[in-house]
Specification:
By secondary structure, the chain is α+β, with helices and mostly antiparallel strands. It is built from five helices and four strands. The longest helix has 15 residues. The chain is elongated. Bound molecules: iron/sulfur cluster (2 copies).
Length: about 140
């Protein structure tokens, strides 16, 4: 996510937002998925209710929900001084770009389920294989 010139987010802001950043991880995929085979893996991710896929331009990322075990009940980090570099970078995040618990300023697409991804591939990218799979999946859900 881009950095802008506005005041940094404070620890108080983080506690007020419910420490959203400490409740999931995001891992960038090494390659942009292209063929059916590579999307196969992404569909598998999305069958898991704790995962989402993010797409920002050609960059795809996997988001996995789950509370960090170093997050204290009062919203503070139990290993603040030793927190990983990625967490330590967050005080530089500005209030403008802070995404909050719902990724509100994320400018890309968020796919919450395999059906959403297949619909995107079928309708916006014209993938016939995705249309066929989606049809079968919808039929299965109706049984
Ligand atoms: S989303 Fe923003 S306010 Fe919330 S924990 Fe992360 S950096 Fe702090
Ligand atoms: S290590 Fe600390 S700052 Fe990092 S995700 Fe866990 S609780 Fe949050």
């Amino acid at each position: 996510m881009k950095k802008r010139n506005s005041p940094p987010v404070t620890p108080a802001d983080c506690i007020a937002c419910g420490s959203a950043c400490c409740r999931y991880i995001i891992v960038d995929l090494p390659h942009e998925p292209r063929g059916e085979e590579s999307f196969e893996e992404l569909l598998w991710y999305l069958f898991n209710p704790h995962t989402k896929l993010l797409k920002e331009g050609r960059r795809w990322s996997l988001m996995v929900s789950g509370r960090c075990r170093m997050l204290a009940d009062d919203g503070r980090c139990r290993i603040y001084e030793d927190r990983p570099f990625l967490c330590g970078d967050y005080p530089q995040v500005t209030a403008d770009e802070c995404h909050g618990p719902d990724l509100r300023d994320f400018s890309g697409r968020i796919f919450q389920s395999a059906e959403e991804l297949l619909t995107y591939l079928a309708d916006e990218r014209g993938k016939e294989w995705a249309r066929r799979r989606l049809k079968r999946m919808v039929a299965l859900e109706k049984k």
